């Protein structure tokens, strides 16, 4: 066994004082650093190194954008920031998964400083001032781009800078074929793709007047699953896909059964993720124990000329029930029985995700432009979409709006320690804007179209539990929610401010801005009627020396936005951070931790990762999420959600023997508290298999 693996394993053993031997991890870091040093290619100067990497097709030709003096200025920034990896997991994860290597894999070509420098130079696209600011933010670990951006930026043979996509399928064979091909094209480049199937006919619907001809959504799901399996990035990474279906669709029970462990092999989805779209009206039916009807989407479209999925079912459900032209039937399961089956299936497999459609659209600032109909593989992306109409060969297709996930995260601990929330958020928005500008996925025309028209990004955050533990604040406490309320209100403020400034500088807004609630000022009403400032003495002390925007500040921002516009249709989304959070010495996203020392297995070796700032004092503040009141976790997400224009990837952590009715109560509570989605349900019997979303994981 390698010495660093031995030392790292020893941290999980208690020392004489009864605490973990965390000092052994420092020995593991030192041993691994020696191996890296021995396997790193050496150069006599920075210029020689960069010329070599450009000439040998490792780096893009940065000399076309920068002089050597400008490049040296950026490198001076990264070298000036003191940096050391804080765990063996961090250093090993960076060098094994992110650092550039020679083509044969024998030598490292980058240190952490080198990766940050080239990412900053590439995303700045010749702007030296931006490159320096971004390089500093990366080195101080205040901001972290998502994995596809951080991994690919600056490489001559790079992949895409984004890897998560969404699109809708129309009810035609042309559309089905088009979307399946698009999904395979995106999977080929490492993308994870979410598809809304709610417009498809249910099993037994007519085709061209022939009754019982339609096969429903299950065969299409099988085609998608096989497509993702086939187009798996040349075997380097498994394809990943998700499908969503409206809960009022006639195939909903069959759809749910595809993830049951005892499902027939012909219908069971082994790798395809599933999500259910849940409008408010269903939750009312559930609460009141009313009769629950499901509908034939085809008959709805025939009767109204509008797809079931496009309707506001909170308003239209009762009319559809009463319309004799609409084919409907009492669902074979009552609403309560169906929700119980959802709970059982989630405990078995982690699926389906739940997307609370009405909550997502209630505070949607672009509701006049369109509705949010479904979410992504990790349930944090929520943007309007429109299905494309795919005609026969020789006829021009009507390409509409798909969705791409352009992500990055703030490290809450380091942003707060450096007391520069505004600068960090502004820099992050600039970096994300560059990624949006440079994204051009040619084999996904609807996604390409939406990116050009909306410039949407998704700035998130990580290390919330780490920050709270470091400062002696229990995650479940009102003080913790007080902090989150202020911090994320500020992130919202400064992301809007920067988006406005970009619109002002470029003289361009996202398409349809004039019809949005930003343009008429409605979006700002909550911030004009109350101050989002610290309430508790503890949180007041944490924000000492930091300017917290007041109602007067929000009023000024409203006026500027109404005058100059906003560049990004969507700005904020909190994804489930994964490997990058290890490098950042961070807890994942805004979720609580599961263990004080996490164990990850890679190949034949286990790596132990102690939570940041773990000590005999803070260990008691790292209460496992499984031992927390899940309603308190939901309360935390609800506080943050009011400041996030998209969604928050939210996991529930339950004991393996939880009664299903208790789990259903958590679903109902999350809906009532305004959450827009629920991601996985994790239980202790399945600690690791369902919590990795590589497409969105930051």
TrEMBL record:
This is Ribonucleoside-diphosphate reductase. Pfam families: Ribonuc_red_lgC, Ribonuc_red_lgN, RNR_N. The lineage of its organism: Bacteria, Bacillati, Bacillota, Bacilli, Bacillales. GO terms for cellular component: ribonucleoside-diphosphate reductase complex. Transmembrane segments: none annotated. InterPro entries: NrdE_NrdA_C (IPR013346), RNR_1b_NrdE (IPR026459), RNR_lg_C (IPR000788), RNR_lsu_N (IPR013509), RNR_N (IPR013554), RNR_R1-su_N (IPR008926), Rrm1 (IPR039718). GO terms for molecular function: ATP binding; ribonucleoside-diphosphate reductase activity, thioredoxin disulfide as acceptor. Provides the precursors necessary for DNA synthesis. Catalyzes the biosynthesis of deoxyribonucleotides from the corresponding ribonucleotides. The gene is nrdE. It comes from Alicyclobacillus acidoterrestris (strain ATCC 49025 / DSM 3922 / CIP 106132 / NCIMB 13137 / GD3B).
């Amino acid at each position: 066994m390698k010495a660093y693996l031995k030392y790292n394993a020893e941290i999980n053993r208690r020392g004489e004082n009864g605490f973990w031997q965390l000092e052994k991890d420092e020995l593991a870091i030192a041993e691994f650093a020696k191996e890296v040093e021995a396997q790193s290619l050496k150069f006599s100067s920075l210029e020689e190194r960069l010329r070599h990497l450009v000439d040998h097709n490792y780096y893009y030709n940065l000399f076309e954008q920068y002089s050597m003096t400008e490049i040296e200025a950026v490198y001076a920034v990264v070298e000036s920031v003191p940096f050391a990896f804080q765990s063996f997991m961090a250093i090993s994860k960076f060098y094994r998964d992110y650092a550039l290597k020679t083509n044969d894999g024998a030598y490292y070509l980058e240190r952490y400083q080198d990766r940050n420098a080239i990412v900053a130079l590439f995303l700045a696209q010749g702007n030296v001032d931006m490159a320096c600011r971004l390089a500093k933010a990366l080195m101080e670990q205040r901001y972290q781009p998502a994995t596809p951006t951080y991994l690919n930026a600056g490489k001559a043979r790079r992949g895409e800078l984004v890897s998560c996509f969404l699109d809708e399928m129309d009810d035609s064979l042309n559309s089905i074929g088009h979307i399946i091909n698009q999904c395979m094209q995106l999977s080929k480049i490492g993308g994870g793709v979410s598809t809304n199937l709610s417009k498809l006919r249910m099993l037994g619907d007519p085709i061209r007047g022939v009754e019982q001809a339609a096969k429903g959504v299950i065969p299409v799901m099988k085609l998608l699953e096989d497509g993702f399996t086939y187009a798996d990035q040349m075997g380097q990474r498994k394809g990943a896909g998700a499908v969503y279906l409206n809960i009022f669709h006639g195939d909903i029970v069959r759809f749910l059964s595809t993830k049951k462990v005892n499902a027939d092999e012909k219908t069971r989805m082994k790798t395809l993720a599933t999500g259910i779209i849940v409008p408010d009206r269903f939750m009312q039916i559930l609460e009141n124990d009313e009769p629950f009807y499901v509908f034939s989407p085809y008959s709805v479209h025939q009767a109204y000329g509008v797809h079931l999925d496009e309707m506001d079912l909170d308003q239209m459900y009762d009319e559809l029930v009463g319309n004799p032209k609409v084919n409907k039937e009492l669902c074979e399961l009552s609403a309560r029985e169906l929700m119980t089956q959802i709970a059982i299936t989630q405990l078995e497999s982690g699926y389906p995700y739940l997307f609370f459609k009405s909550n997502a659209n209630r505070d949607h600032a672009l509701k006049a432009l369109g509705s949010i109909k479904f979410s992504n593989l990790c349930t944090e992306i929520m943007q309007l979409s429109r299905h494309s109409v795919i005609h026969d060969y020789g006829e021009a297709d009507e390409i509409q709006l798909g969705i791409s996930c352009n992500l990055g995260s703030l490290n809450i601990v380091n942003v707060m320690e450096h007391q520069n929330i505004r600068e960090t958020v502004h820099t992050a928005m600039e970096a994300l804007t560059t990624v949006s500008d440079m994204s051009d996925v040619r084999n996904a025309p609807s996604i390409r179209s939406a990116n050009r028209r909306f410039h949407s990004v998704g700035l998130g955050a990580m290390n919330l539990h780490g920050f709270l533990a470091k400062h002696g604040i229990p995650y479940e406490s009102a003080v913790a929610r007080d902090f989150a309320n202020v911090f994320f209100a500020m992130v919202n403020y400064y992301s809007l401010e920067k988006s406005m400034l970009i619109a002002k500088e470029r003289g361009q807004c996202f398409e349809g801005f004039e019809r949005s609630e930003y343009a008429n000022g409605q979006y700002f009403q909550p911030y004009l009627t109350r101050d989002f400032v610290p309430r508790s003495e503890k949180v007041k002390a944490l924000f000492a020396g930091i300017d917290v925007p007041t109602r007067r500040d929000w009023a000024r921002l409203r006026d500027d936005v109404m005058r100059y516009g906003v560049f990004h249709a969507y700005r904020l989304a909190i994804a489930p951070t994964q490997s990058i959070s290890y490098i950042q010495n961070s807890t994942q996203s805004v979720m609580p931790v599961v263990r004080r020392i996490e164990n990850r297995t890679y190949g034949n070796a286990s790596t132990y990762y102690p939570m940041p700032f773990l000590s005999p004092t803070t260990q008691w503040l790292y209460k496992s999420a499984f031992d927390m009141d899940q309603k308190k976790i939901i309360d935390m997400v609800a506080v943050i959600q009011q400041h996030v224009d998209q969604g928050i990837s939210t996991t529930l952590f339950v004991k393996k023997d939880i009664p299903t009715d208790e789990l259903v109560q958590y679903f109902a509570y999350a809906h009532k508290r305004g959450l827009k989605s629920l991601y996985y349900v994790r239980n202790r019997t399945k600690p690791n298999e369902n919590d990795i979303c590589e497409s969105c994981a930051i």
